[in-house]
Amino acid sequence: HRSSPRRRRSMSRRYDSRTTIFSPEGRLYQVEYAMEAISHAGTAVGILSSEGVVLAAEKKLTSKLLEPSKSSEKMYMIDEHVACAVAGITADANILVNYARQAAQRYQYTYQEPMPVEQLVQALCDTKQGYTQYGGLRPFGVSVLYAGWDKQHGYQLYCSDPSGNYGGWMATSIGASTQAAQSIMKQDYKAGEMTLKDALQLAVKVLAKTCDSTSLTADKLDIATVTMRDGHVSYTPLPEASTQKLLDAVQAEASTGDA
Amino acid sequence: ARPLRSGRGAFGCRRGAMAQIEAVVGLVGKDFTMLMCDSNMPESVLIRRQDYDKITKLAPHKLLAMGGDHADMVQFGEYIEKNLTLYELRNGFPLSTHAAANYLRGEVARGLREGGMVVLDFLLGGYDEGAGPSLYFLDYLAALHKVDKVAHGYPAMFVTPVLDREWKAGLSEAEALTIMDHCIAAIQKRFLVTMPSFTIKVVDKDGVRVVRAPGA
Predict the structure, then answer these.
(1) I want to staple A86 with a disulfide (CB 3.0 to 4.6 A). Which of A93, A154, A193, A228 is the partner?
(2) Which chain B residue lies closest to A120 (C-alpha atoms)?
(3) CA B135 to the chain's CA centroid
(4) What are the beta bridge partners of residue A156?
(5) Helix (H) or strand (E) holding A37
(6) Quick check: A75 and A93 in contact, CB under 8 A?
(7) pLDDT above 90 as % of chain B
């Protein structure tokens, strides 16, 4: 960029290309640009209930010619007790998911116990933070929703962004239209009273209202739950038939009148 | 650098003759775990002192009884203790006894592979809410087992029959102490090395407690 004939005018532009330095206003532009990239990705929501955690995401179908793949580009199992939904650059997400899976197995190998969910989140976030401070590499263009269960804190939902910050949530969203999603969830989420069924319903309702196209179809949705099954935690992706039923219920409720 | 004093044990590793001489005994009671060690600190054929405490408090609800190289006892014992504290500070809750035992095993195994082996036999006793009291056997070759009653070293030859015959589930502290006294009697009667005093400690829901002080 040094030998470019064109001169950059605005002051802040000079600080764009280096990820590892602050701008004069005290901002990390690369991190912000990463978040901008994510705001164009398919929405993903996470909702905590007393019976488990729900993750739901809208898949961006870029072409009819694409082979429908078995694996999702939005939802991943990290370990038996933790799953995540991602929004952003898929290639970046793959790296992070792989790292998370390794971290979880490393912990299990050392302690012969599943890795506590928050520690997994922290491990990933510490990695993400590294890319904002040294190495001169760009940050990961991915936000992640983590859903899991451990014996210390039960069901948990966390959200992390390219800066490496994370928070624990009852309900949150990443990707496109998060503002709209958050306002619907703020209205409809009843802390302490949500059952798994409520959470699934709310997740589908939020996605139906915030998605691009007027008609959300079941094949565009990826839904999974982290709940107890036969006494142990398991990650269960919902079959398309169940997703369709939820969608029908939401659309029926919408047509009979809004809340 | 390998130390000069001891010969090579199995696997050609640095295994002191003294490691097998120390008495390390443990058993699980109704709602506590009891650990016992002899209080001798030997140095070749000399007894350096007879009031040495070989049972470390690793955490508020974890005890580690060790037999073997005394330098390793201090250094490795503290290393584990500090790492357990670090975990609790970082994460807001302590490791369970099961997790701590496996972590401990991993560190001993690492020493075996990377040089700097830890010449110690361990008994880890802990108390966890929910799981209750537990006892883990770990030897210097990193073999880990969860057990109800066990002993390390030559004294184990005399103590194991006593434990087998007298241990039962749900022991009270008094009953457990009686069994330990029978173990001591067996050692003092039949074992070549004189062991005049033993340290006994207990871990339960209230933490760690000294039942018989070293040198008592």
Answers:
(1) A93
(2) B91
(3) 10
(4) A148
(5) helix A29-38
(6) no
(7) 83
Q: Nearest by CB to A113, from B91, B93, B96: name it.
A: B96
Q: Give just the sign of the alpha carbon dihedral B168, B172, B177, B182.
A: negative
Q: Cβ of A112 and B102 within 8 Å?
A: yes
Find all residues with CB under 8 Å of A155, minimum gap 6, and list them: A48, A49, A50, A52, A53, A147, A148, A149, A226
Helix (H) or strand (E) holding A118: helix A117-133
Is A111 within 8 Å of A79 (Cβ atoms)?
Answer: no
pTM equals: 0.87
Secondary structure E strands in chain B = 24-28, 32-38, 41-43, 46-49, 55-59, 62-68, 120-128, 132-138, 144-147, 149-152, 198-204, 207-212
Stretch B166-194: mean pLDDT: 97
Q: What is the pLDDT of residue A171?
A: 98
Is B68 in contact with B119 (CB distance < 8 Å)?
Answer: yes
Looking at residue B31, the DSSP 8-state letter turns out to be S
Rounded Cα gap, residues B43 and A201, in angstroms? 72
| CA-based torsion, A21, A27, A31, A37: positive or negative | negative
Lowest mean pLDDT across A110-124, A243-257, B9-23, B81-95: B9-23
pLDDT, tens digit, 9 for 90 and up, residues A85-109: 999 999 999 999 999 999 999 999 9
- Cβ distance A111 to B95 less than 8 Å, yes or no, reads yes
| Per-residue model confidence as pLDDT tens digits over B35-45 | 999 999 988 88
Q: Are A23 and A12 in contact (CB under 8 A)?
A: yes
Residue B215, pLDDT above cutoff 90: no
The stretch B200-211 carries a mean pLDDT of: 97
- Beta-carbon separation of B106 and A110 below 8 A: yes
How does pLDDT run across A168-221, given as a tens digit for each residue? Answer: 999 999 999 999 999 999 999 999 999 999 999 999 999 999 986 567 888 889
10 Å CB burial of residue B188 (0-12, 13-18, 19+) is middle
Residues 6+ apart with CB under 8 A from A233: A80, A81, A148, A149, A226, A227
Chain A, nearest residue to B99 by Cα: A111
